[in-house]
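USER: If only I could read backbone structure tokens as easily as an amino acid sequence. It would mean a lot if you studied the pair and described how this chain folds. Here is the record:
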Amino acid sequence: MKKRVYIKTFGCQMNENDTEKMYILLSDEYEPTSNPEEADLILINTCSVREKPQYKAFSEVGRYKYLKKKKPELIIGITGCVAQQEGEKLIHRLPYLDLVLGTQGFYFIKEALETLKKNKRPVIFTELKSDFKPPLILGKKDKLFPEDRKVTAFVTIMQGCNNFCSYCIVPYVRGREISRAPKDILKEVEELVKNGVREVTLLGQNVNSYGIKEKGHPDFPELLNMLSQIENLWRIRFTTSHPKDLSDKLIKVIAENPKVCKHIHLPLQAGSNNVLKKMNRKYTREEYLEKIKKLRDTVPNIAITTDIIVGFPGESEEDFKETLEMLEKVRYHEIFSFKYSDRPFTLAQKLENKIPEEEKEKRLKIVHQVQANITKEIYESYVGKELEVLVEGSSVKNPNMLMGRTTTNVIVNFNTPRLDLKGALVKVLIKEAGKHSLKGEYLETLKF
């Protein structure tokens, strides 16, 4: 009988993808459980990009201390960015921990468990190698989670970052940029498609720099075209793109390749040149707006989303107003906005003129209000239109409706006479706009 593993994931899509890999790596000896009380192995896959998810992770680990007392043979581990950031300090802070596996270390989880069994003391693996080649991990996730057959899937194409934005911990916990071999990416996507996946989202801290350093690798636009040759793969998404590296070649592929979704996540972070310079973003607001113009001119129906940080050290009222102006000028479909928080190792933590917490909170609320009005207007413009939707499953709020996404990454919930359309590409008439989604009526099935 197999042992049981429970994994709690915090943070970005890359962490979600890393968790899937850990389930596959462990699948010979462990089966997943959704109940930590039943687990023989508990892993907390962590994020440290901001303070909040890091605190959540520590709180989560603390919840399992009593389980360890009840069941001393229980193995508890921390993986991901907090493990990479804190390393051995975690063992001193949380003496009941057995494993600390960083952003490359989790690939060796089976070996770590063997070492733990042999030596009976905590195993720490936080080395970051610049020449590390992530192994190809293939596994049928639908066999691990039969009730969770996915139509969409994340595929990590590169790890790490070379940009060193002054507020960002990623280069320190994910290392320098490493691109995966294209043959491995193709093989992984082909395997996913065989298992029913119809849409993949390619992941990287900066996908635009994929393959630039590696001799003989295609660049990112070329990789998109290669993947689009895979039969029965209907859609390709990607995230994240650094504005400074957004090329005309990539914009052309988004416009001309029918499988590449008409959506791009292009983090602005701040609308003021003064703040952008302190952030070490390596572009100006004018250069960013020029990229937006090229995108809109070449791909008229494109949806653009972004990240915004409010309250960066030294951000004046005027700087903040310039960020609000950018929201109005660009008119993003959606934004992900955050209050600035100091992160270890970063240059920004040493900057003076920190913004008080209450002021950051106030600015964040204003950003939310401004963007809510813009999103409302954009979503209302979809009413009366017929849109293609890839069906992902039942609607979260109403199991008698189906849910999917448009090529522009807008969620659509819709009524339909049949509920067995998971994985189908359908046409939907939009009847109503919500805050972050659309509602409509099924018209016809285009592909199944």
DSSP finds 15 helices and 19 strands in the chain. The first helix runs from residue 13 to 26.
